[in-house]
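call fold(seq) -> tokens
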Amino acid sequence: PDNDYVFFMRAGYTGSWRYASVMWNGDSNMNWEKYDGIPSTIPSVNSVGISGMPITSTDIAGYHCLVSLPTDKELFFRWTQLGAMLPVMRTHASSGCAGNWLFDSDRETLLHFKKYAELHTALFPYFYTLAHQAAAKGYPVVRHLMLHYPEDPGSRQEDYQFMIGDRILVAPVVQKHAREREVYFPPGEWVSWWDSKHYQGPARFKVSAPLEEIPVFVKAGTLVPLFDSQIDTLVKTNNPALKGWDDANRSMLVRFFGEGRDELTIWDGTRFDCSSLTRKCEVADAPVKRVYSFEFR
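ret:
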């Protein structure tokens, strides 16, 4: 009744997003197969966004094992990375597949899942800002490259990458045993999320992709707002043993990539204006008291 709910769907029609806020890409196979394994997730979320459904998700590590072996560790690692870069991060393994590799199957996997759950949570201010843009203007949170680079042939032809909003480029690893992948960079300069290495587009480059790392890049001259606190939940809580929404929203890190100047207004009206020249950011119209820190890369 108060509109505070989440309803998932995997099929619908024009206008369905008014009733079901999240679409996931169905019961994928637990494998690397192109048409219904982990690779199929990327064309799926891109297509759903273009079709008008703004918020998407996937079953981390897949769901079906009818025609494949149960999920193994490498597949779980790669799908966790992919799931963390979507608006809704969630696991949903089939109970009928004995032997599935799960988030707590060993300590290394638990730490890997923790790392990407923390990254997903840190990105909440940006994800939530994009969700508000979706409600106001219909823009999808996850976007095919061609939505921002419609005149660029390479962007139109790229099926296995996506953008989060207008500034984060994600190139998931969807081939077994791969420890590098070719990434297409649209026109402009791009900065690696992990090591701040710069790439100039339009061009294709092979980039390193160790098992623990998903290739992620940010458009040079843009900022990304992040939560920077260790928390247990993003909902409000009165439990003193848990850190929740109020703890998360007390501080924020604004990370600026490359050279230039950028402005961004986030979901609650807070406006950031950052310049790499002065290495300073101005904050205006914040409705709540926060501690801000700024990082230039």
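The CA atoms of residues 2 and 170 lie 35 Å apart.
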